[in-house]
Every structure is written in structure tokens, then in C-alpha cells.
Amino acid sequence: MINELDCIKKAEAKSMISEGCGFEEIAKIADMIESEVEKLKNVMEFNAIADAYCNSCLEFGDLGQYDKAVVYYTKAIELDPDDAYAYDGRGTVYNELSYYKKALADHTKAIELDPKNSHAYSCRGVVYGNLEEYDKSLMDHTKAIELDCDDKVSAYCNRGLVYSYLKEYDKALSDQTKAIELDLEGADLYCNRGVTYGELGEFDKALDDYTKAIELDPEFAKAYDNRGTVYLNLKKYDKALSDCTKAIDIDPGFENAHYNVSCLYALQNRLSESVQHLDKVVGLGYNNWKFIEEDEDLAGIRHLAEYKEIVDKMKKFKHC
After folding, report:
1. Residues 77-126: pLDDT tens digits?
2. pLDDT tens digits, residue range 166-194?
3. Which residues 6+ apart lie within 8 Å of 280 measured at CB?
4. Rounded to whole angstroms, how far apart are CA atoms 92 and 197?
């Protein structure tokens, strides 16, 4: 873009000379174009810095870098209020920070500025999903696919997740399978489809998908935990415990895995170990005591004083 503007500046000057314009007027126009070039250079630099901070967040998990990304995307917007790229980038950051209304506003602005911005549609679809506005989410993901977006894998994957939330499992499977066809090495894609197969009670297919996900990414804690859940449903408790324990080894703060291990120990009458992991779940922030009280897998520890103390603790947290 900068090179193109440099050419425009030179062409404009040549045109004015041929038309007999004075040197001062030519110099004025040249200075004006030079100013625009410098502004665009700054916009591009600010966007590049913001992108770098975003990449740092994704790679190192340092959420503080997102705040810096917002600052630089905002600087780019201040210099060029018509920069759809900066609005789209800032919207993506706001979504990561759970500022969904701000994210929605930025992606919408990006689409207004560039109606064919498939990335903005796809990202806005994710925001609508986080806001549980699923019909709007579906519309945006579909629009992104229609616009032949660069990342069709994510578009199909995200639309499939929305269909799954809506319990439209056939449509979810169709999209999730399409995403896998486009990216045969995507471990998360197999994991997502495994969840859908599980909801449909097709446990063999779910196990196949989770196993494939683990083959592709041996450190994929969620895939181990999900496969463990299927084994639990099939009453293959030893295999379930092995998988859920592996998930905790990979991610010691994995709340869901600790909960499943607590259930498995309770089912195997290993009561003290069950209580230990249930207490760990509470320490990680889980406070849905009503679900725990109704979960039949934990029936074996409900008579214990330690269990009652844990539930009372959760009730207190709920009221804080």
C-alpha cells in the first residue's frame, strides 16, 4: 500500500507539471500525500505491534499482553477510523478478554467498513455464540463460509459447535466432519466431533475420535478426560480412571478431570480419594452444589462428614 501511494505521489506531481501548475502548489500536494503515507505507515506499524502482542498471548498465555494489543489497535483506529483490520483485531482481543459487547461493536464496525470481511463475520459469530445468541452466530458463520473465508476449518468447526449447543446433532456432525476433511491433523476437530458422537450415544465412534485426537496431540488433556467420560458411561472404570488421571497429570488445574476422578473413586468405593478430588474441584472454583447432590456417581460418599463439609463450603461460596 505504501509503495502504491509513493507512485501516486510521483504521478500526481508529473501531471501537475504537465498542466503548468506552479512549484508551490506541486510541493503542497506532495507534502499532503507524504503526510498520508506517513500516517498509513504508522497505522500499519501499530497494527503489527498489536498483532505481535496477540500472538504472545496465544503462545505464552500472558493475558496482560492483550491489554497492550488493545492500546495499539486503538492507536491505529485513531489515525485511520476507516481501518477495518484494526477494528476486527481489537474485537478479537475483546472477545478473548470476555468483553463481548465491545467485541461485538468492533466486529460489526469492521463489517460495515468492509462487507466482504469474512474473518470479521467468523469472529462475530464466535462472540454471538459466547452471548448465547445462537441464531445470529449461525448466520455469521454461514456468511463467512459463503464469502469463501481463508479459515474455513474454523468456520465449519465453530458452526458445528453452535449446532451441537442447539442439539441439532446431525448438522453438527456434518460441519465437524467437513472441518476434519479440510484439516486431517486437527486434534481439536476430532475432539469436538467426539463430543457430538457421545451426545448421540455412539460411544464407539466417540472413542475413535478421542483416540485420534490423542494420537495427534499426546498432551491433549481434554481428549483424555472426554475419552475417560465415555469409558465411565460404559462402566469401564479402570480405563476411565487411567484417562482422567492422565488428564490431571497434563493439566493439574483441570477441574472437570478432578470431578470425574472423584466420581470414579466413589464408584470403586475408594471413598477418601473421592472426597480428596471433590475438595480439589471446589478449590478450583466449582460451586454447582445442586448438581453434585443429584449426581448418582457420588452417592457412595454422601454419608461422609467430609462430603457434607464440602457441600456446605460450596453453598457459602455461592452466596458470596
Report:
1. 888 888 888 899 999 989 989 999 999 999 999 999 999 999 999 999 99
2. 999 999 999 999 999 999 999 999 999 99
3. 258, 262
4. 30
Does a structural domain hold residue 310? yes
Q: Is residue 193 part of a domain?
A: no
CA angle 250, 252, 258 (to 5 degrees): 105
Number of domains in the chain: 1
CB atoms within 10 A of CB 191: 25
Q: Whole-angstrom Cα distance, residue 297 to residue 316?
A: 23
CA quadruple 66, 72, 75, 76: dihedral positive or negative?
negative
Q: What domain range includes position 311?
A: 256-320
- Domain-embedded: residue 300: yes
Burial class for 56, CB neighbours closer than 10 Å (0-12, 13-18, 19+): middle
Taking all residues of the chain, what is their mean pLDDT, rounded to a whole number?
86
Q: Phi then psi for 254, rounded to 5 degrees?
A: -80, 100
Residue 234 lies in a domain: no
**Percent helix, strand and coil across the chain, each to the nearest 5:** 80, 0, 20
